[in-house]
Amino acid sequence: MESGEGQQDEADFQEPVSFQLIQISSFYNRSLEENLGSGWLGELQTHRWVSNSGTIIFLWPWSKGNFSNEEWMDLEDLLHMFSIGFLQIFHNSVSQRQLEYPFKVQLAGGCELHFGEASVGFIRVAYQGSDFLSFQNRAWLPSPNGGSRAQHVCTLLNSATVAREILHKIFFETCPRFLTGLLDAGKAYLQRQVRPEAWLSTGPSPGPGRLMLVCHVSGFHPKPIWVMWMQGEQEYPGTQRSDVLPNADGTWYLQVFLDVEAIEAAGLSCRVRHSSLGDEDIILYWGHTVNFQALLSLWNEIPAAQGSRRI
């Protein structure tokens, strides 16, 4: 691929774009530990593995990026070697009475691409959910709040010269190259436009004479979306949004709430704007809510028709 073409492909994605590996290790005693690993492109999980075996599972057809099978085997070996040594350091710290079983360690390592600039690698370690260590300039550094425990573990990790070189190679050299290829391999999937589906309901009553109106919007991609309760062409004050949460298929889901006097609900509408809709907003009018809920009850009592679609 020519460099100009690659830059154009990358520029199609929102920046910065990140890829990271996360390993969660639960230490129960000297002979029992549990290790779970996952790989994430932004907020999308692309890989998982059980660190004890080191075998990486690809969750999407494009999760291998442009790496060959041989490159993946080499990467699996490097990750497995590092994981064994990394876990042993923490067991040794227990033997030296710096740590006590049981405890949990989380490692996040990866890279970010800021298009037009140099990539940025990172490795961070948390102990019992708090910042503990970081890896910078080929050396481990304790967190300011890590105390003597973090300093002790850093000393042990920094004594492993080969492991530090492996880390630098994986996250500061291999990761940016892999991330660029992953974006290219998954471009069609990552940039797909999926129209949202929307429907209305009521939530728990906020009080006498009041209604909690809920606008549900689901199945959309990409993530950015605008949803608002409206009165005519004016935004109705008091709209509250939930977090935008992922669906299992890689699309997104959102709820938007409005607490109103029941007598004010008639004539309100929920408006949805999304890139997949072009200039055609979805508008759902609360004046039709009673009929909609009746239809929804009937819908749930019969098998869904092939190809039917909620709106």
Account of the protein in words:
By secondary structure, this protein is of the alpha+beta class. It folds into 2 domains: 3-190, Murine Class I Major Histocompatibility Complex, H2-DB, Chain A, domain 1 (2-Layer Sandwich); 197-301, Immunoglobulins (Immunoglobulin-like, Sandwich), CATH 2.60.40.10. It is built from 6 helices and 17 strands. The strands form 3 sheets. Strands 4-3-2-1-5-6-7-8 form an 8-stranded antiparallel sheet, with helices on one face. Strands 9, 10, 13, 14 and 15 form a 5-stranded antiparallel sheet that branches. A hairpin with a 2-residue loop joins strand 2 and strand 3 (44-50). It is elongated. 23% of the residues are buried. InterPro entries: Ig-like_dom (IPR007110), Ig-like_dom_sf (IPR036179), Ig-like_fold (IPR013783), Ig_C1-set (IPR003597), MHC_class-I_related (IPR050208), MHC_I-like_Ag-recog (IPR011161), MHC_I-like_Ag-recog_sf (IPR037055), MHC_I/II-like_Ag-recog (IPR011162). This is Ig-like domain-containing protein.
Spatially, the strands of the biggest sheet line up as: 4-3-2-1-5-6-7-8
CATH class of the largest domain: Alpha Beta
User: What do we call the CATH topology of the largest domain?
Assistant: Murine Class I Major Histocompatibility Complex, H2-DB, Chain A, domain 1
Give the radius of gyration: 25 Å
For the report, how would you describe the main beta sheet? 8 strands, antiparallel
Which range best describes the helical content: under 10%, 10-25%, 25-40%, 40-55%, 55-70% or over 70%? 25-40%
How many domains, in number, for the residues? 2
Name the helix and strand elements from N-terminus to C-terminus, one letter apiece: HEEEEHEEEEHHHEEEEEEEEEH
Low-confidence stretches: 1-11, 289-299, 304-311
Mean pLDDT across all amino acids = 87
Report the oligomer: single chain
Membrane topology: Single-pass type I membrane protein
Main location: membrane
InterPro entries: Ig-like_dom, Ig-like_dom_sf, Ig-like_fold, Ig_C1-set, MHC_class-I_related, MHC_I-like_Ag-recog, MHC_I-like_Ag-recog_sf, MHC_I/II-like_Ag-recog
Protein name: Ig-like domain-containing protein
